[in-house]
Amino acid sequence: MPRKSVEEQSKYFKEWYSKNKEKVQQRSKQWKKDNLTPEKRKQYQDKWYKKTGALVENKYYHEERDKSKLRANWMVARSIKTGKIMTQPCMVCGDEKAEAHHDSYTKDNWLIVRWLCRKHHYEAEGRSASSPRD
Hints:
Blueprint: H1 6-35, H2 38-52, H3 67-82, E1 99-102, E2 113-116, H4 118-125
């Protein structure tokens, strides 16, 4: 029997996964429970961070001082998902792909956002589009 093309294989596996999604997820959960101890997980993470050069400490949302940023972002995402707030176009240029910009991360202001495209969001935060998150 000849080998299938990449497209055919991809189509087959997508169909198979959609039919067996629950079984696959259950099997994955069971494997993690049986094989992935906290020590093993730490080893995988350390190996990944070493390979990629990334450090957890450099992630903006892992720092204690930025927990309110993360909570504010979660609150906006949840409010969009539940329909409490609707995404809007950029307030500056009208671009439809806009992001929520918080002027303040205090709990009272978590849902008070300005809708800005990526370019204007970076400008509002005082950083260039190519700079990493600080």
